Structure formats: structure tokens, C-alpha cells
Amino acid sequence: MNSTFPTSRMQDKSAAVIVAAGVSRRMKGRDKLWTPLSGRMVLSRTVSVFQASSLINTIILVISAERLSEAMALCRNERWYKVAAVVPGGIHRQDSVRHGLDALAEISPTCRWVTIHDGARPFVTPTNLEDGLKAAMEHQAVTAAVPVKDTIKEVQQGIIASTLERTRLWMVQTPQVFSFPLIYQAHQLMRQSGHDQEDITDDATLLTRLGHQVNIFLGSYTNIKITTQEDLLLAEALLQGFAAP
Fold it and tell me: Which residues form a coiled coil (predicted)?
């Protein structure tokens, strides 16, 4: 299931790990990744962006164990020839990412760059992928992010304790793009140190905890993560807007 593109600096051994092993606790019994958006499943919309990108050579898809057979059938039906492996996720998100990185290390040990993305963010764009890869080549570790628009309060026991400085606050998204050896070794070190039982919500956090610098590149406010029923409504509205003339 590998693909070959004309060689260039940005296309040199670049892969993606798409994490789609969540349990959708806030979706009232619905699996957000397998929920239709305007007739096409969330997961299909997400993976197809990476399949279509000339910057991505290989895709590793991380799926909940219960959905493995369905995911492999979906890959065949969608003709995602870049998907080199479909692997089961773990207990925590970082476990799922590590499983994906382990599979990538086995399939493509000379991989230089890896983009890690949440399967529940179907509005990732080709521009996001290009901007992330360019930034990673300069800084080694980067994450998409957008400036916070609202005033943010720190609250303790229902009482406002402080107002945070908005100009310093950014909402972190995926894709997050890394030097593959850097992020792979970071996950191995986290496991060896016994800290892998902590629930680390993204890979930028993992690297900063280990003392590595992580830079940001500008993401998009439409690059939403579908977590709740309300997010599905917003996603449908975004799709209608994208389809409008």
C-alpha cells in the first residue's frame, strides 16, 4: 500500500499517523469517527485529505480494537493505497500514538518526518499539511494552533480567581508535525520511565515535558475536533458553507 511521488525536500520520507481509537464518551453512544457528515463518515473525510496529499508517502491508521476489521474494509473500499498499516489503539491517547509510531518504524525505518493528526478533525486542509511540514523542517517539532478569541478566566470552586492574559493564549490543534526520530524516541523514553500511565492529551505536551521546544504554526478556526453532538451540527454547517458557490 505504499505510494511513490517525485522526490523533493518536502516529500522525503514523510508519513502520517492518524489517531482514531477514541471511545466517544461525550457523543451519547455514537461513535464520532463513524458518524456520517453529509453522507460521508468523519473518518473517511479525514483520511482522504492525507491520501490526496502529495506530501504524505505513508499513512498509519490507529483504530480501536473493535473497529479493526471495519477499518480495513473501509481502506479497501476507499482505495487508500497509502495506508500501510491499520493498528489497534491503546488505553490512553499516547499509547495509541506510540502503537502507530512503532508500526511506522517497522514499515519505514528511514522516515524523516511524521504528521500526527486526530481522526476526529475532518476539516484539516492541504495548506495545514504543507505549513506544518515546512515549520517542522525549520524547528523539528511544531503544532497547529490559533489565537484564543474569548476572555479566559481561571475559576476555583465556581469563583473567578484570575483573568488570563489573552495575547499569550493559543488553542492547540492537530496536525502536529515532528522529526520522526525525535518523537519516536520521546515516546520510547516516556514508556521506559514509567510515565506512560499518565493521560497526555497531545504530543506537543509530551515533548515539552521532556524539555524539548515545540513551536507553533497558524492553524485554522474551522479545523474543529468533533467531540460532542453540537460539534456535529457545526461540522454540517461548515460543509454547507464549503459547498456554497
Answer: none
**pLDDT, the chain, mean:** 90
In a domain, 160, yes or no: yes
60 — phi, psi (to 5°)? -110, 125
Whether 221 is covered by a domain: the verdict is yes
Query: CA 232 to CA 83: how far, in whole Å?
Result: 26
The tally of domains found in the chain comes to 1
Q: Is residue 243 part of a domain?
A: no
Q: Look up the pTM and report it.
A: 0.90
What CATH number has the domain bearing residue 120?
3.90.550.10
Residue 43 lies in a domain: yes
pLDDT digits (tens, 9 = 90+) for 197-235: 677 889 999 999 999 999 999 999 999 999 988 999 999
Neighbours of 1 (CB within 10 A): 15
Question: Residue 245: which residues within 8 A CB-CB, separation 6 or more?
Answer: none
Instruction: Write down the H helix ranges in the chain.
Output: 42-52, 68-78, 93-107, 126-139, 180-192, 203-209, 229-243
Domain residue limits at 98: 14-230
- Short-list 47, 99, 104, 56, CA closest to 76: 47
Which pLDDT score, from 0 to 100, does residue 190 have?
87
Query: Whose CA is closest to 131, among 209, 31, 53, 224?
Result: 53
* CA–CA separation, 140 and 212 (whole Å): 10
